Amino acid sequence: MKKHILIVPGDGIGQEVTAVGKQVLDRIAEKFNHEFTYDEALIGHVAIEATGDPLPEETLVKMRASDAILFGAVGHPKYDNDPSAKVRPEQGLLKMRKELGLYANLRPIKLFDELLEASSIKADILRGADILFFRELTGDVYFGKRERLEDGNTAYDTMIYHKYEVERIARKAFEAARTRSKKLMSVDKANVLESSRLWREVIQKLAPEYPDVEVEHQFIDAAAMLLIKDPRRFDVVVTGNLFGDILTDEASQIAGSMGMLASASVGDSTGVYEPIHGSAHDITGKGVANPLASVLSAALMLDISFGLKAESEAIIAAVDGVLKDGFRTRDIADTTTDASKILGTDAMGAELLKRL
Ligand code: NAI
Ligand code: MG
C-alpha cells in the first residue's frame, strides 16, 4: 500500500516522541511491504517563531495533501504565563481541527496488564478496563463567543452546540458501540445546561436507529466519579469537547500515564493521530519522555485511516512485549522497577524496533 504521511511534531516533547512514532511506521512499512512517504510541517510555537503564524498556510496545504498526519503537541511556557499574548500555539491546534473538519476525537483507554501497578487506582478495580471515548472536537465552549468586558473584571465564554454537530459524532459512537459491547454512555450536564439538553435530545432521537445498542445517560459530575470508582462499567462514551477534555485526562490514570494514551481525530478528511499529552516543558530536552503514546497513535493511524489491522496489532504487540520484558520510561516506572530497565525516549524506541 502506498501512503503519504505528514509528520507534524510541534513543540517540546512533541519533537522527541514523534521521531519514535515515525521510526515505528518506517519499520512497519519495511516489514509489511508498504511504501510510506513522509513530509514534515510546522505548527505551534515553532511555527510562530519561524513565520509568525501558529498554523502557516504551507502547513495546511501539506495537511490537505497527505493521507494521514502524525502529530506531536503544541505549547510553550512563554504563553502559559502570559494570558495576554494574542498569537498563541494552541490557536494552531484549534484551527487545524476546524479547517480539517476533525469533529470526532477517539481516545481508547487501553490498560496494559503490566501497568496495573503503575496506576494510582487499585489493580482490582482496574483489571480489564477498556474504554473508547468519543470527544466532540469542533464545538462547545472552545469555539463559542468569548469576551473580556471593557472593565477587565468580567469575562464569559459560550457553550454552544448545533444539532448536526451532536448527531454526526453520536453516529460514530453508536457505530463503534455496535462493534464492541453494544453499550453507549452519553455524558452531559442536562440538569443545568441548555446545550446539554439539546445534546441529550439528539442522542435520544437517534437511539431507535440503533436498537441493538443500549444507551445510558450520565451527568458529567457523576461520570467523573464513576470513572475511578468503577471503570469497567464504561465501554463506549460520547461527550462534548470540554467534558471530554477533562474526563479523558482523568481516564489517563487508568492507563497509568498520559504518556501511554493515543488519540485519533477524524471527520471530513485527513485524520490526525496524536498523543493526548501536551508539550511537557518540564521534561523537554531531557530525553525521558515516554514515546509510547505517539507509537500507539501511529498504530491507530494504520487501523483507522489505512485499514491495516494486522500492522496496527503488530505495534500494540510490540508495546506489550517491551512492557512484559520489564522496560519502562520514568513516568510508568514504580518502586519495583529494575533501575537498569528504566529507559529514555530513544532507548525505548530501540527496544520497540527490535520487537518489530
Ligand atoms: P502535559 O500533558 O504536557 O504534561 C502534564 C504532565 O505529564 C507533565 O508533568 C509531563 O511531564 C507529564 N507528561 C506528559 N506527557 C508525557 C510523556 N510522554 N512522558 C512522560 N511524561 C509526560 O500538560 P501540561 O503540563 O499541562 O502542558 C504543557 C504544555 O502543553 C502547555 O503549553 C499546554 O498548553 C500544552 N498542551 C498541549 C496539548 C496538545 O498539543 N494537544 C494538550 C495539553 C497541553
Ligand atoms: Mg487536555
Automatic annotation (TrEMBL):
<dbReference type="InterPro" id="IPR004429">
    <property type="entry name" value="Isopropylmalate_DH"/>
</dbReference>
<keyword id="KW-0028">Amino-acid biosynthesis</keyword>
<protein>
    <recommendedName>
        <fullName>3-isopropylmalate dehydrogenase</fullName>
        <ecNumber>1.1.1.85</ecNumber>
    </recommendedName>
</protein>
<feature type="site" description="Important for catalysis">
    <location>
        <position position="142"/>
    </location>
</feature>
<feature type="binding site">
    <location>
        <position position="135"/>
    </location>
    <ligand>
        <name>substrate</name>
    </ligand>
</feature>
<dbReference type="GO" id="GO:0051287">
    <property type="term" value="F:NAD binding"/>
</dbReference>
<keyword id="KW-0560">Oxidoreductase</keyword>
<dbReference type="InterPro" id="IPR019818">
    <property type="entry name" value="IsoCit/isopropylmalate_DH_CS"/>
</dbReference>
<dbReference type="GO" id="GO:0005829">
    <property type="term" value="C:cytosol"/>
</dbReference>
<comment type="similarity">
    <text>Belongs to the isocitrate and isopropylmalate dehydrogenases family. LeuB type 1 subfamily.</text>
</comment>
<keyword id="KW-0479">Metal-binding</keyword>
<feature type="binding site">
    <location>
        <position position="249"/>
    </location>
    <ligand>
        <name>Mg(2+)</name>
    </ligand>
</feature>
<dbReference type="GO" id="GO:0000287">
    <property type="term" value="F:magnesium ion binding"/>
</dbReference>
<feature type="binding site">
    <location>
        <position position="107"/>
    </location>
    <ligand>
        <name>substrate</name>
    </ligand>
</feature>
<feature type="site" description="Important for catalysis">
    <location>
        <position position="189"/>
    </location>
</feature>
<comment type="pathway">
    <text>Amino-acid biosynthesis; L-leucine biosynthesis; L-leucine from 3-methyl-2-oxobutanoate: step 3/4.</text>
</comment>
<dbReference type="InterPro" id="IPR024084">
    <property type="entry name" value="IsoPropMal-DH-like_dom"/>
</dbReference>
<feature type="domain" description="Isopropylmalate dehydrogenase-like">
    <location>
        <begin position="4"/>
        <end position="352"/>
    </location>
</feature>
<feature type="binding site">
    <location>
        <position position="97"/>
    </location>
    <ligand>
        <name>substrate</name>
    </ligand>
</feature>
<comment type="function">
    <text>Catalyzes the oxidation of 3-carboxy-2-hydroxy-4-methylpentanoate (3-isopropylmalate) to 3-carboxy-4-methyl-2-oxopentanoate. The product decarboxylates to 4-methyl-2 oxopentanoate.</text>
</comment>
<keyword id="KW-0520">NAD</keyword>
<feature type="binding site">
    <location>
        <position position="221"/>
    </location>
    <ligand>
        <name>substrate</name>
    </ligand>
</feature>
<dbReference type="Pfam" id="PF00180">
    <property type="entry name" value="Iso_dh"/>
</dbReference>
<keyword id="KW-0963">Cytoplasm</keyword>
<keyword id="KW-0464">Manganese</keyword>
<comment type="subunit">
    <text>Homodimer.</text>
</comment>
<feature type="binding site">
    <location>
        <position position="221"/>
    </location>
    <ligand>
        <name>Mg(2+)</name>
    </ligand>
</feature>
<keyword id="KW-0100">Branched-chain amino acid biosynthesis</keyword>
<keyword id="KW-0432">Leucine biosynthesis</keyword>
<feature type="binding site">
    <location>
        <position position="245"/>
    </location>
    <ligand>
        <name>Mg(2+)</name>
    </ligand>
</feature>
<keyword id="KW-0460">Magnesium</keyword>
<dbReference type="GO" id="GO:0009098">
    <property type="term" value="P:L-leucine biosynthetic process"/>
</dbReference>
<dbReference type="GO" id="GO:0003862">
    <property type="term" value="F:3-isopropylmalate dehydrogenase activity"/>
</dbReference>
